[in-house]
Amino acid sequence: MAAKKTTAMRGVKEALRSLKGKTAKKPTKAKTTKRKPLAKATKKKATKKTRRLAPKKAPKKKRAPKKATKASSGQSGPGLELALEKLNDREKRVVDALNGKGSGSREIFTIDDLAESCWKSKSRAQANSWVRNSLRRLIRGGVVEKVERGQYRIADSGRKKLARAA
Predict the structure, then answer these.
(1) pLDDT of 1-31, one tens digit each?
(2) Which residues contact residue 109 at a Cβ distance below 8 angstroms, ignoring those fewer than 6 apart?
């Protein structure tokens, strides 16, 4: 086994010589230096007389209370003044479907009913998603009211806004 290692090493050395054109140098160990031991600190324990007090920090400035900001969308949050001109296309479609083409009746619609009447060409899941997302701002704006879970109708204030806009 030892003979194999030495012949292998000779082959490596010869290869190195042929590559460099010089004689190969033997690898050397990295030199390490001994560190000197640290001098022992002669620290005395603090007594009442020798104890130093840390300088006092300046008191923090009081910040003004944050003003309540209006959320731009979603059902949660404060009420939202929503003008009918600022509604996007999807919200307008939902309002038109809830209004029942101006019949004045306040029918109760489910999300599926609204999705079918607004987006017949879209998949059921996509249409339901668009209806749910459109209803969030409409509810906060007071245009639509939630009757029960998944059931909505146009609010009185929503009907009045639509009558003024027409």
Answers:
(1) 555 556 666 777 777 776 665 555 566 666 6
(2) 97, 98, 151, 152, 153
In a domain, 118, yes or no: yes
CA distance 23 to 17: 5
Range of the domain at 124: 87-165
Q: Are the beta carbons of 74 and 137 closer than 8 angstroms?
A: yes
CATH number at 151 reads: 1.10.10.2260
Question: Tens digit of pLDDT for each residue in 95-136?
Answer: 888 887 656 677 888 999 999 998 889 999 999 999 999 998
> Which tokens go with 71?
């959320």
> What does the block give as tokens for 103?
């019949």
Which pTM was predicted?
0.51
Look at residue 100 and tell me if it is in a domain.
yes
- Name the domain count of the chain: 1
